[in-house]
């Protein structure tokens, strides 16, 4: 009897090498001693985990809102506060948030529903002035210790707050029965009703080995069972498989998150609805280097928002001119 040996070989990650891989190498290994608290039996008993297809009769959201934001550092600066304050490092940054309105299965194309652009000067100086240029005004924002990581976190917090404000205001005006998909983890937005966080990249494998094995077994339009996860914050989560040609581990996998306060029927209905609609919005590799996880509406919104931020060269020169003349 002869045995067929599999030849050594390799596969290529479908994401453009200019971006980080969709899943970190260490995320594929079983995590031992992870600090994440898991409840694997939210939907089914842990030993019975298997791929789940949304049942027949699952209704897609009547309206799907997709919220995203972009950020850019226009210049690194030194901020001079009051006469007794030492100059401190800061960043002049532009950031924007937007919402795309989609009607799954309908004839109405995706449309921009709301957009807002803001600019801020972040530093630890307690009395920093705003940066006034001929092109834009950067409002002074105080961060913590003024380190580079702290400045970046302060910028991200303001961007998240802008996304939340935009979503709340738009929903209050429209009054529609919608589902909101936010690009990125749900942290800081768990209080929003009917909202799902959409995570494209995976830095950690939160599941134990038996349940983690279900993830690569998913096919297009399937999901894992819902589980509850707690790190520094609590949420429900599940993994979804998008259409992809690559055979690399976890190719086409996205993680979805929902609020921890939802009941089991509520979060399961939410998981089925979003799993039903996501594959039709998956990005395609010849158009997007982060396909399929970077959904078509998200890619289009990011492109529009970056355009709305303005020309970085012009803003940089305007900031330098304003600093010279002050």
Description of the molecule:
It is a single chain. The chain has 5 helices and 11 strands. By secondary structure, the chain is of the alpha+beta class. The chain has an 11-stranded mixed beta sheet with strand order 1-9-10-11-8-7-2-3-4-6-5, sandwiched between helices. It comes from Acrocarpospora corrugata. This is Nuclease.
Task: Offer a few descriptive terms.
326 residues; alpha+beta; eleven-stranded mixed β-sheet; 22% helix; 26% strand; elongated
Helix content: 10-25%
Span of the ends, CA to CA = 85 Å
Computed CA radius of gyration, to the nearest angstrom = 22 Å
Global mean pLDDT = 86
Into how many domains do the coordinates divide? 1
Low-confidence stretches: 1-7, 9-13, 25-33
Assign an overall shape: elongated
Task: Report the count of strand segments.
Answer: 11
Our estimate of the beta-strand percent is 25-35%
H-E order: EEEEEEHEEHEEEHHH
Counted by DSSP, the helix tally is 5
Strand order of the largest sheet: 1-9-10-11-8-7-2-3-4-6-5
Look at the helices and sheets and give the structural class. alpha+beta
């Amino acid at each position: 009897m002869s045995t067929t040996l599999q030849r050594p070989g390799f596969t290529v990650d479908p994401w453009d090498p200019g971006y980080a891989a969709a899943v970190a190498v260490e995320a594929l290994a079983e995590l031992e001693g992870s600090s994440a608290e898991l409840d694997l039996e939210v939907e089914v008993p842990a030993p019975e985990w298997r791929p789940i297809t949304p049942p027949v009769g699952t209704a897609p959201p009547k309206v799907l809102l997709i919220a995203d934001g972009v950020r850019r550092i226009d210049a690194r600066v030194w901020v001079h506060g009051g006469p007794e304050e030492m100059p401190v490092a800061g960043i002049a940054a532009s950031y924007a948030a937007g919402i795309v309105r989609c009607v799954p299965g309908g004839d109405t194309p995706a449309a921009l529903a709301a957009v807002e652009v803001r600019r801020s000067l972040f530093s630890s100086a307690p009395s920093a002035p705003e940066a006034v240029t001929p092109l834009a005004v950067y409002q002074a924002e105080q961060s913590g210790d003024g380190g580079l990581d702290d400045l970046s976190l302060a910028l991200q917090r303001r961007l998240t707050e802008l996304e939340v404000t935009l979503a709340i205001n738009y929903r209050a005006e429209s009054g529609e029965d919608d589902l909101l998909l936010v690009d990125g983890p749900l942290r800081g937005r768990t209080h929003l009703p009917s909202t799902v966080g959409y995570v494209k990249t995976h830095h950690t494998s939160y599941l134990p080995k038996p349940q983690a094995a279900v993830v690569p077994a998913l096919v297009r339009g399937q999901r894992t069972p819902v589980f509850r996860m707690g790190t520094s914050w609590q949420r429900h989560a599940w993994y979804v498989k998008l259409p992809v040609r690559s055979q690399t581990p976890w190719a086409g996998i996205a993680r979805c998150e929902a609020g921890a306060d939802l009941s089991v029927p509520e979060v399961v209905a939410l998981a089925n609805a979003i799993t039903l609609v996501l594959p039709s919005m998956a990005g395609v590799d010849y158009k997007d280097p982060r396909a399929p996880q970077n959904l078509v509406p998200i890619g289009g919104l990011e492109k529009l928002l970056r355009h709305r931020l303005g020309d970085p060269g012009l803003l940089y020169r305007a900031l330098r001119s304003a600093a010279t003349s002050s």
